[in-house]
Amino acid sequence: MKLTTITNVSVDGVMQGLGGPDEDRRGGFERGGWAPPLFDNEATTFLNGVYQRADAFLFGRRTYEIFAGYWGVMADSGNPIAAALNTRPKYVASIRLSDPRWADTTVLSGDVAAAIGELKAKPAGELQVHGSGSLVRWLLDNQLVDEIILLTYPVVIGQGTRLFPDTGPDTALDLVDSRVTPKGVTIQVYRPTGRPRYATATM
Question: In sequence order, which residues have a C-beta less than 8 Å from that of residue 130 and are 6 or more positions away?
Fold first, then answer.
């Protein structure tokens, strides 16, 4: 399966608490709920399509718990995102979660890299990672990501957890698709291509 990460970020890279004011207040974060005012019909249509093509989902524990508490209770709502999440396999990379209550959930608590490698070795399909910043960074560090989808919102949050750390590995990316929604959400699709090339000094 192809492993795709899907992340909503502000222009300054913040991904924390995008959905609501109380979604994630870790670290004294007080600016939650910044995404919905900018999430227009075109962004909705795009994201609905992304979820519909998923064959399985992979989460970090915190995002899993947020999704289970919100999408997990919407099984009969007719919402296409809820339908995808509630009818397809879900995997959680966690050493703390032992009793998942969302149906069709498997906890990956041993050799996570090997478990994900087995999922990726399946001949077809797409394994999607939504949110889950710590997990996404770990997946990138371990060269397990095949495609990156970034939805960048035209807002600077100024605090909160960012997708990429101040210091980390470098990765070259090929841009394979780019579009802008009417409210200015930039949707970009990248494929990692190894280490970047750096210019050499010339005299």
Answer: 6, 7, 57, 59, 63, 67
130 pairs with which residues across the strands?
A: 6
How far apart, in whole angstroms, are the C-alpha atoms of residue 127 and residue 91? 10
Query: Burial of 49 by CB count in 10 Å (0-12 exposed, 13-18 middle, 19+ buried)?
Result: exposed
pTM for this structure?
0.92
How many Å apart are CA 180 and CA 46, to the nearest integer? 11
Cα(145)–Cα(192) distance, rounded to whole angstroms?
A: 7
**How far apart (Å, rounded) are the C-alpha atoms in residues 201 and 66?**
48
Distance of CA 90 to the CA centre of its chain: 14
Strand partners, 153: 10
Q: Distance from CA of residue 153 to its chain's centroid? A: 15
Tens of pLDDT along 105-141? 999 988 999 999 999 999 889 999 999 889 999 999 9
Residue 9 phi, psi dihedral angles, 5° rounding: -135, 155
CB 8 within 8 A of CB 129: no
